[in-house]
UniProtKB/TrEMBL annotation:
Gene Ontology terms for molecular function: amino-acid racemase activity; hydantoin racemase activity
Organism (species): Brevibacterium casei CIP 102111
Enzyme Commission identifier(s): 5.1.99.5
Enzyme class, first EC level, given as a word: isomerase
Family: Belongs to the HyuE racemase family.
The organism's place on the tree of life at top rank: Bacteria
Composition-biased stretches (Low complexity): 241-254
The name this protein goes by in its record: Hydantoin racemase
Length: 286
């Protein structure tokens, strides 16, 4: 099994840390590929950067010239997961929803500890949209900028652990969720400082993605995440890849729905056969 773990910012060293944490969480036979967008912001801490990241993540995935079974979007509270689900026929897991989902299995109320205060509304909105907000006791800011998680990890751990303790004592949280992909590399140290279970969204997303692939489940293509309608797309780096991905999904659906004819295999060339039938591909953006 191969899983693409896509960083939402352009800081390659942070991608390395996220991929390292993902590999530690993954099963022995799961290959983790870390991807860094070729354009975007060095860190995502607001709506402008988040929307730009959504484009960069799509471009990175569509430009990956290889096979994969699932995609993880490694940005907490960022936009873009829904677009990936339209584009791809493999499972797409966002670390925001993965972390909160597992937290609700561990306690009645969870709190998210994130970076700057300006990111709190984005996370609250994503949890609300996903229907995961009801059991969220609070979303707390550690006051640490995303890039400072790497630049000053000791101070970051102190700040995150301090807010986690406040969430337990004041907000009555029973589980803590780390609210930034860049915290994944610090998760082990933070766990040792907390009195309740701590969920890293990256690790949670890896295990959920593995489960979806193992169960043969993927995104429903009825209504909400049906492929985008074919139309002219100009000016965007991923335009060609998006069109080809949608065409491939429609061709595949048409082939699966009807009886096979002598030329039915021509549509299937958009998803090449591989040695492992569980591994699927996407049309590369050229």
């Amino acid at each position: 099994m191969r899983i693409l773990v896509v960083n939402v910012n352009t800081t390659a060293s942070m991608t390395d840390g996220i991929a390292r944490a993902a590999r530690e969480a993954a099963s022995a036979d799961t290959e983790i590929i870390g991807l860094t967008p070729s354009f975007g912001s060095e860190s995502c801490e607001g709506n402008v950067e988040s929307h730009l990241a959504a484009l960069g993540v799509m471009d990175a995935v569509l430009g990956y010239d290889g096979e994969y079974d699932a995609v993880i979007q490694a940005g907490y509270g960022e936009h873009g997961r829904e677009a990936l689900q339209e584009l791809l026929d493999v499972p797409v897991v966002d670390i925001t929803e993965a972390g909160a989902t597992l937290a609700m299995l561990l306690g009645r109320r969870y709190s998210v500890v994130t970076t700057l205060d300006r990111t709190v509304p984005l996370i609250e909105d994503r949890l609300l949209l996903a229907g995961l907000d009801r059991h969220c006791a609070s979303v707390r800011s550690s006051g640490m900028a995303v890039l400072d998680l790497e630049a000053d990890p000791d101070r970051a751990v102190d700040a995150i652990a301090g807010e986690a303790a406040e969430a337990v004592d004041r907000d009555r949280a029973e589980v803590i969720v780390l609210g930034c992909g860049g915290m994944a590399d610090l998760a082990e140290v933070i766990v040792d400082r907390c009195s309740v279970p701590v969920v890293d969204g990256v690790a949670a997303a890896v295990r959920l993605a593995e489960s979806l692939v193992g169960l043969g489940l993927s995104t429903s293509k009825v209504r909400t995440f049906s492929p985008a309608r074919p139309k002219r797309m100009t000016g965007w780096p991923f335009a060609r890849g998006a069109q080809e991905a949608g065409a491939a999904q429609e061709a595949s659906a048409a082939t699966d729905a009807g009886p096979r004819s002598d030329d039915a295999g021509s549509a299937a060339t958009n998803r090449p056969a591989t040695a492992d039938p569980a591994v699927r591909t996407h049309p590369a953006a050229g």
